Amino acid sequence: MKMYQFDLSNIVDDVKLMTDSTINDVRKSQKTLNLRKKVLVGHRLSPEKDLKVWNMTIKGQVNNLTDSIMKCDKIIKALEDLQKNTKHAKDTLDQAIDDLRKQLEANNRSLKIKLADLEKKMKSVGCVNNGRELLRVIFTLGISCLFDSNTKREFENVKVDLKEE
Predict the structure, then answer these.
(1) What's the rounded Cα separation, in Å, for the pair 107 and 26?
(2) Which residue from 57, 75, 101, 149 puts its CA 20 to 30 A from 93's CA?
(3) Which residue range(s) make up the domain with 150?
(4) Alpha carbon 5 to chain centroid distance?
(5) Residue 91 above 90 pLDDT?
(6) Is 45 helix (H, G, I), strand (E, B) or coil?
(7) Between 7 and 155, where is the model more confident?
């Protein structure tokens, strides 16, 4: 997108330069015609010279406008290309965002399934899940079953980790 922004900036600069040159060309023509008026006032301009001044001025304006039209055509083509390229870039970005959204949804579904499985395992975990907990239950006469076991804490830690993902 930075590249397209740079291209657009260059096109705007080209239009500004073209506008400036057109304004300068019009000023040159105005100067020529103003000089013509001064010469006419002094009665120093013959009809042949007057015709040459007008022909030169008109020819210069036609050439300048023709050149401006060619430049405008190039700018219009560049703008059309830029429009196509930015649309293609937008479509590509939209597709990439959709792909990422689908991946996130798939990951979310798989994490929910893992979480449900862990919750089932957690429910099936009793007071005695290994030999160490069995000895603890025997020595405490079953009172240790009222407190959290290490296995339950491990499952809860895994459950919290999965929720964070």
Answers:
(1) 66
(2) 75
(3) 125-165
(4) 9
(5) yes
(6) coil
(7) 7
